[in-house]
Structure formats: structure tokens, C-alpha cells
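Deliverable D5.2: sample structural annotation.
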Amino acid sequence: MKSRHPFLWAAAAAVALTAGLGANQAAAAEPTIYSPGSSGPTLTAQPNGPSSVLVAQAAPAPQVPASQVVGAPYEIPKQVEQRLDILEEWKEKVEKLPVLTDKFNTGLNALQWLYSHQDAHQGEGKSQDQISIRRSELIFWGKISDNLPRWHALYEMQSSGLTVSTPGCPSGGNCATAAGGTAVSATMFRESYIDFRPVVGLAPNLNFFRFGIFRMPFGIYTETSGGLRDVISAPYLTSVGSGAANSTTGRNGSAGTIDFIQERDFFLDMRGRLWNRLDYAIGVMNNNNFQANFNGQNGANGPKAVYSRTRLFLTDVSFISFTVIGGESNNTGTFINGRGKGAMDRFGVDGRYVSKWLPGLYLQGEWWTGHDGANQTTVGLPAQGACLTQTQCGGNGAPGVSRQTWYVYGKYLFTQGPLENWEPIIWYEQFNPNTHAGSTMGAMAGNDLYTRTIVGLNYYFENLPPKIQSKLMFNYEFRHHSGNGTGLVADPTRGVGDPFAQNAFYVQFQIRYM
């Protein structure tokens, strides 16, 4: 046994020497594989085999010309080269095409099916129940460049009604008996605007200028899309009342429909954010609503108004805002109900609280006050000037009025348990069309007040705002209206003749996908 040891050691040395020489020669033509974290090379990979198969060559590698060693370990077939050329050409062409997810987008802003029941005490043959499509809105938007960060267009597909003009009166004639306005235009679009950022480096301090028509930055609710609202009815601050403004009781300035804050208008403003806490918007608007975009009487060329809003963020989701609107309104050619001739102003405070200590709790409210000029009118009713003689100037013959409104609501979204995705909500609001107490032109104004309490329940199928939201909404409204501000005949039966004293029940199913 001992005599075999020298032979075995000699054989082992010969094999090791042969393998070492072969590995050194192959290293010039084959890449060396390193193990992560190791200090030296390991085995080498065969160029024509799978990368996971590692072998140690036991024989010297054939000599390879240097021209074949440099670059790739083997020649690329001509067919592969042709295919690569085609891919490169295709890549260059594709890179010149617009990126659709950035340049052009489309979506469903809101599709809402609505059932409504109003306690209107209808006569025989008339129904108190209605089924309708509340909103059917398609939205388009995109980004062109850093200097043009957004373009936007929204179309209301169910809009089929005509807009009525508000004419003036013939000189020297009886304005009270003059013909009413005629239907002049039907509009399908609701929003169209362009954002322009003149100096990219100044953003977000001076973020952009916005040109066009959009939801105005007045408070919270007017700027909230219809597809994201928490109750079905719009607040009284946007529209309240019914009937004509030239009734006998209208001379207190409370009669007829009143659009205290219009939701949309034609405008130009500047927006930005300071210190990552303070948002601002300041601009000028036509002050004649979005329907005024036509080549008719006055058109959109009404008296202008300026506005500004400052919003301080207390957290990333809770804030308080202050809004000021000032300018002049007209009662001839107006497309806003309740406006008179002369100075008008609005002052508003709003706030939102989203709890981080009790997730799901949400509180919101707004308070507004403002003044409308003399001789207010409703759209379509002849009016001209600020005089209080209805036969001469039409309108309601009332002096300037001060109005006030506010609302507050809270909701809680259950995110787990048997009530998951259910959201109860409670809402209360008031609207006073004339805050002057006592007698005005022989009619009482101080007792004219609209109030409403809404009890609601929402169920979310999808809730990823602001892009996706699908929900089922139930609202019951307790309405009350003191006084005869609408000009309708009083009736001892509650709610008869006055829709704002009639309780109502609504069910709405909506989809929003953007």
C-alpha cells in the first residue's frame, strides 16, 4: 500500500498541471464568472452552452484569431442584424408619437340615474314620482408640455333645453307688459379651459394661469364635481326659490329664483401655492354664467367682476378658506337669477375637517353673505335699469338687498365590519334672501327664510376619489320655508304651492371613471 502513494501523488500533479494550462489558454477567449462577494474568479462558462452549466476544460483550447476575440464571442447572423435594424427604425418612429396617457385622456365624469319623490300634493292624473338621468358627462383632458400642463373639456350629454335671454324694455313703453325673453341657444358643453405656465421654474408659487369656463373657485361646493358630491341636491347657495320676480310680494327682493353663487363662468385667473400651505386664486370673470357664450343680445359681454380666494391648509386634507367677489351686475341680458342693476359683492368663509384620529369622520361647512343691486330679475323677465318703477324698468321693483346663507354637514365612512362601505350623512342649511328686518316696500322681509335638513345614507361599490367612485345614495329632505318669498299663494296644507316647503325623497345610483 505504501508503494502506491508516490504514484498517486505524481498522477494527481500531472492532471492538475494539464488542467491549469488549458484553463489559462481558454481564459483569453472566454469570460470569467465571478461570484458575488468573492475575491477571485471561479469556473468559466461555455460560450455555446447554457449559462448555468460551468465546466473546467481539461485540454488546451484551439487558437482563435484576435479579430474574432475582440467584441462578441461569435458572429451575429445577418438575419439577426436585419431584425435589429427594423426594431431600431420602428423605435425611432414610435418615439415621435404622442404619449396618449399624457397628451389625451377621456373618462366618464358622472353618470347618474335618479329617482325622486316630492310631497307636492299633486292632483288626479299627476305623479309625484320621477325617474331621470341627472347627469351624463363625458370629460376629456391632457397635457401638452410643462408650459401647458392641462387642457380640459367636459360635455353634458343630456342638455337639450334652450337658454332664455333676458331682454330690455322699449324706450317710453310699459316694461311690465313687455314680451319676455326667447330661447336663443342650447349648450352642450359645460367646461373648457387651458392652463398656461409661463415660467416653469416659478411653480408652484406661481403655478399657472387658467383661461376658459370651469367651476369657479368660490368656496368648496361650487368647485366640487357633480360626480363627487356627498348629497344629491345642490345647496341653496347655488340656487333657491321659484316663480317670477315681479309678483306683488316680489318687491321685498325675496321672490323668484335666486342664484346667489353661480357654479360656472367665463374667467381668467392666476393660481399658485406658497410655503406649501397657502393656496391662492385671483382673477376676473364675465359674471354672467356659462350660458352666455353666444352671439346674441349682450352675450357674454356683461359687467365684469373680480374675485380672490385664499386657502390655508392646516393639514394635508383639512383647511379653511376666505373668498371675496366684487363688481357690477346687470339685469338686462343676464343669465343669473336674482341679479339687479348696480354693485354686487360676495364674502365667504369655508372649512373642511378630515379626521386622522377617527378615520372616516368628515366635516364641512360654508358661510356666505352678499349684496345684489336694485330691481332684481329672473332670467327671461324684462328688466332695464335700477329704477323701482316696474312699468318703466320692469324687474321686481325692489331696492338692493343683502342675502345670507350657510350650510354644515358631517359624515362617517365605515371601513370595516358589517357596515363596511356604508356612509351615513347629516346636513343642515339656511338661506335668507333678504337680511333686512322689518318692512320693505310694504312687505315683510325679515320672516322670509329657507331651511333644509337632509338625512342621507351612501353605499360605495368603488371609492377611489377623485378618479373612480361608484355609489348608491339615499336622501330624505325635510324642507321648510317661512314667508311667501316665492310669490305663490299660501295654503293651509303644508307644502301646497311651494316646492321649497315640500319634503322630498331621492335615490341616486352613479358611476364615475376617469
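Annotation notes: The longest helix spans residues 5-26. The chain has five helices and 24 strands.
The annotation will be released with the project's public dataset once the embargo ends.
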